[in-house]
Amino acid sequence: xxxxxxxxxxxxxxxxxxxxxxxxxxxxxxxxxxxxxxxxxxxxxxxxxxxxxxxxxxxxxxxxxxxxxxxxxxxxxxxxxxxxxxxxxxxxxxxxxxxxxxxxxxxxxxxxxxxxxxxxxxxxxxxxxxxxxxxxxxxxxxxxxxxxxxxxxxxxxxxxxxxxxxxxxxxxxxxxxxxxxxxxxxxxxxxxxxxxxxxxxxxxxxxxxxxxxxxxxxxxxxxxxxxxxxxxxxxxxxxxxxxxxxxxxxxxxxxxxxxxxxxxxxxxxxxxxxxxxxxxxxxxxxxxxxxxxxxxxxxxxxxxxxxxxxxxxxxxxxxxxxxxxxxxxxxxxxxxxxxxxxxxxxxxxxxxxxxxxxxxxxxxxxxxxxxxxxxxxxxxxxxxxxxxxxxxxxxxxxxxx
Length: 401
Known about the structure:
By secondary structure, the chain is of the alpha/beta class. Helices cover about 35% and strands about 15% of the residues. Helix 1 crosses helix 2 and helix 10 runs parallel beside helix 11.
């Protein structure tokens, strides 16, 4: 695999050099304010370092889904102040990401200045990876840095097209992400466990298929586990399950056995006959005792204890998806308990733990352990595609340098 060029491979002195940096500033907003600034914070180290080295830092990002239309509510101008506050230095707004208007504004910028270019998706060619748009963006810079792993699974003009037109490098956040992922599944310390949860098997079939050959223990939770239990002949009552996919689940069991991968399913579960916070009908039972009018909403304490014991034998953990309906108490218990075990093992240096995906980050934050994992990826789709073993266009383009 070609070694990825990073900021270390750029000239040390970048005075006056224009560096186009693809960041992911696509943050959630509430009442005109940023409600979660995780992605903005992730971009800060690269911006600050380039600025300190004298570069004119030009930030490219999408924001929302404007579908080629100019929409004031999706202008990256809204992000100038929050990013400036985090950086502790002024940030300019540039009213386009290509063309004479952008060129004119950039010509007035000084070494060390940073500016956010207008939303790349205001141009219809962005999502089509239009070569002409990529050329227009590339014309603004001397170097290109991709620091947006969370957008690397998309072959867009700003994530993939520009990388072929300028000397290209990975930013610090991208570098950290790829190092962590390599440690987790590329060349991990064994034994390796993967926790894969979430509602539907259909969205994670490719992930499960890829992991079987790479991990020693596959822990399946969430609604997905119900489909696997049904494939094993367990009556799951009115639990969320994809009964039409039990054939695929059986095939995964067979392939896992051939690969020497142990699949872990719960043998005790928390059930209720309604999905609501703390329902009176809630009880814990063996998986073979789920009544016809009950639904499985979480793993039981015995299952969690057994899974904790599995993690204690492992050196590497990859986690994607919650084990139960964690947004609704008390069905967050299993996710919180196992996440805390993983965090404790990581803190005592016996486990390398890498987690990713929107729900997963929320669940780990809820458990209060996100900072204790070795690495938590903010990427959703890109993290999943990486778990499926797919090449990410934004990363592949950097490797071709």
